[in-house]
Amino acid sequence: MRADARRNYDRLLAEARAAFAEHGTGTSLEDVARRAGVGIGTLYRHFPNRHALMSAVWEDAVSDLLARSHALLDDPQPCAALVTWLRAIVTHAGEYRGLSSALMSASHDDSSALARCSKPMGEAGAALLARAQEAGAVRPDVSISDLLQLTNAISLAAEETPDDPELADRLLMLTLRGLKADGCTAA
Length: 187
Description:
This protein has 187 residues and is mostly helical. The protein has two domains: 48 residues, Orthogonal Bundle (Arc Repressor Mutant, subunit A); 130 residues, Tetracycline Repressor, domain 2. The longest helix is centred in the N-terminal third of the chain and has 23 residues. The chain is elongated.
């Protein structure tokens, strides 16, 4: 990438991150381009659609969440490690209004740009889930795709209820109690 193209890309990404955090992922792409000081054509050359732009914004967080999952693989309490990681996902998804809904729709669309992020997240979560299941803390019939859909649903519910900042954690704990062979309460 040429230096000027790289600068445009970086500015678009920074402005998209700010706009998504401020106004949600449904914010006008024209506004994102304007805030970055480029035309809409430049935005579309770098990001052919909204999901591609969202994916690029989400990739930084995915890197952090993946690193966190790898560190949690050594946790002596597998259920607590899984809960910690799921909480981190819910927290991050709550930073961008509309991200949870987009991730839910992208989870069944392998052609979506957001699927690039979903696959490594699923693999990382599957490793944490397997440890918790092997320890007998989580029922064997629970899948990581179910857990990721649940975290997105919890994030979406919390997004729609901004006057209750504790809702996401309450819903996550309620969900986790249903996963456990004898009641998964951790962290």
